[in-house]
């Protein structure tokens, strides 16, 4: 577990650990509630349960948020009383905390309720504070930023040109499905990613030929980001493993060395 | 074959080898019988044959199980007469052996017959005792446990959020297919894994845009476990190869060194 | 940005940079216009806007082209007054520049208008001058040319033989979909690339068996170009990174060393 | 081209080269003829052309075969007059040569004509003699034999168990599509390889859940052979490249060193 979670840090008191695990549990309970609430039959039967979970969660998360903002001044990074707190409020993790309680308060106003209910699911991002994995993903993406941007750009260019070609070829035979370049892009994505739902496919011989060439060539190009991410991930985990090994524990007292 | 099977071990007598290969053959015969029995026309015509195979197999597997439990006390690991045998009974391979005969005896009771008939197919796991490959897979998964858990967790999180977003966008246009978040997850899995059966796909422009972004970005993330497993596999086989080479045979007498 | 674009070169004046970024912007505006113009409802409402963008773009791109050809004589590579300019006109980047204005002038003649309108989208290739990424892709493909040709050839051979086999098996059961080898190849590509639109699939047991074997074995073969491209890409970026690091900037004056 | 073809060998006379390239051309012409002949409308119109190509090809290939068998005795490997020739006839390349003329002679007998016509397409395998790439693929598969067998075995086992589970879950809801374990395997292959034609998919919640889990987990396992083949391919090409470099040409006279 040590490799996956930050919550298991060595220097925590028992109370801190209980609080952390309690909050993680509450976040997961919330995620489950949002998912089940979206099923009509469950919502009809257990509406009071879901409403109570919501009420209690918002109360606890609000309390958590206030305390976090208040105590942020003790953190080295946000030491100045007001400006420091403001900077903490604008940090990504604090914004997630805010976003997970704001919809509730906004729902008393004039906003559309249904969207707000689903936005609640973004509360699951609160676990980002505890899950090391998300930090790893973030670092991998930052580390391979240049390569990923390059390939995404090339893929976008390719999609654009392929879709415009296909539009020229197929729009007459199937004006409802290949009627414009944006419409044809829906086919392009389905083919290049090999999802192939089957709602849109060429029927003319020329369209089928182009589709075949694109599927084969596209497979190669679309797999490049995959390769980049995979290698970045393995490098990152390898480095972290080495760092973990270097930063070891005393065999006698169990303290960090 | 030496690389694939444990059955070919150097230190076995001819009788042991014959028994091992006989049991492997019986397991494969059983697998074939279960598969063919599920085809109605075959079952109608050859029912007595399948029933005989079942009867003989259960008899032999029961005998094997009893003998294995009895003789387990001679193994160093389970030396104590009763407690050792109990510990052997609870070991994974012994549990598989038990599971492959238990359904037959339970079917005399009040349990649903059809499920029991299929559970019989899990007898194929009995070959795990002889097939080194399954040990390799097991070791690879254990070796890459942390990375796999991390990515599976992230993928689960991503699936959850993507499905909830899609639910908000598409549930009005297609209430029968995107009617709840769990329903929408079926679309999410089909898209992220690029299976794309074609039974569920977005029809609104916003839904198509989200689906496209997810298919492209998801391809990268969903391929990470693949990369991890592939590299783990090649590392494992490489190490084993090195170990095999180090543990060589005398060129004069053919004995292990 | 330095890693992605050539436009950011150190030795440029402010005017040069403004021109470069202006041209990139114009190219992207053009791409957007072509895409939106293909949507009927947009075209009806904003036709004058699209026409104006076209007119202004062609004017500027023509001016750019004339100036580039004129000034090419100052480039070391094309120093001779007329022969040098001719050689510049035939270089790939200059041909793209020519292709992005030619359709406009041809549309006054007797050519089909619709195709010319889409050919305009190939103007996006003008950004190739500024985007380093396309150079990288080009280098990767050149570097792995031999491997890619080998695998593409093998894949083509495999597709040919698999489709002819499937044609023999399925053409009687589904004469409309597997009626000839070229028709069956459409199934072959959809299966080997795992796109699987779902418009063509075998229904006979023998066809399903062949399709299954091909899907599994083909997965492996079709992924080889992917692996080759991915490794070529990572090697290329690695080398470039090393070259960038070696070709560093003076910490005092900011000039290249 | 040197890297792709064996035909370009240094020690060949002009006549040998012309013969080799002529035979390659004839093989490709034959492949094209078989493919086009399968299209009814082409066959009706150009039947005499296809028949002539067939006749001439069989004549030349028969001549080639007789000459090859006759002259094989001069090869070091098949030196003995009769036994050597017999051993040559049984070598893989000679068998392909025989298979590409035999169907023609058999079609005068009582065999089904349509299958024989398609078997002719296997003549394309005659290019194996000249295309180095096929040797490379062969070597890669031999080099990674053990790993490939292991994973294919595990995948087969997984497919068997997954299909039997799905059969238990879905056979009642969709008896026409999941009516027996072999039928369900068609779904299993489509899902595990992510082809997803869309003709068979689960409709019960339990079936969808199982399908989702399998698609995700299966993706990882099914990609292992891919990874093995890709790495084997790159190793093989790397070694060959090194060998080519070591076996270089004299800079003065152009002869091999």
Automatic annotation (TrEMBL), chains A, B, C, D:
Pfam families: Ion_trans. The chain crosses the membrane at residues 21-39, 51-70, 90-113, 148-169, 209-230. Keywords: Ion channel, Ion transport, Membrane, Potassium, Potassium channel, Potassium transport, Transmembrane, Transmembrane helix, Transport, Voltage-gated channel. Residues 17-239 form the Ion transport domain. It is found in: Membrane. It is a multi-pass membrane protein. The keyword Ubl conjugation does not apply. Gene3D superfamilies: 1.10.287.70, Voltage-gated potassium channels. Chain C. This is Ion transporter. It comes from the Bacteria.
